[in-house]
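Suppose you are handed a protein chain with no further information: no name, no annotation, nothing but its sequence. What can you learn? This example shows the usual starting point.
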Amino acid sequence: MLKKIDDKSLKYHVMVEWPPTCRNRSPSTLKTRPDLVHQINKYTNHVIEVCKTYKNIIRIDQEYNMLGIKTWWQNGQDLYHFLQTQQKNNIRVVPELAVINPVTGRLIMFRFDKKDQNIFVY
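A reasonable first move is to predict its three-dimensional structure. Written in structure tokens, the prediction is:
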């Protein structure tokens, strides 16, 4: 389910990288490169379609980011499955996971590594 919701219900954040040719492109570069804008839009739609397959709430930030697409997750099981199926879905997630501390509301950053069917957080 993709919709605007109260941020308090979201617990996890990961960044989905743009395709290699679209990474680190400034907005001024995109103004002169409609081919890249088309690729970014197509890829964003692909990520949205993948996220729609999950039953819990996921928010995809609409604001452009040079690194990729910011995604916010309500459910850890959904995020775990998303991370496990990156390769199958032709998606690459930046290997950083942010978890919102429920007491302070601050993001706590972790790095992760996916090996075989395991995800190691450190």
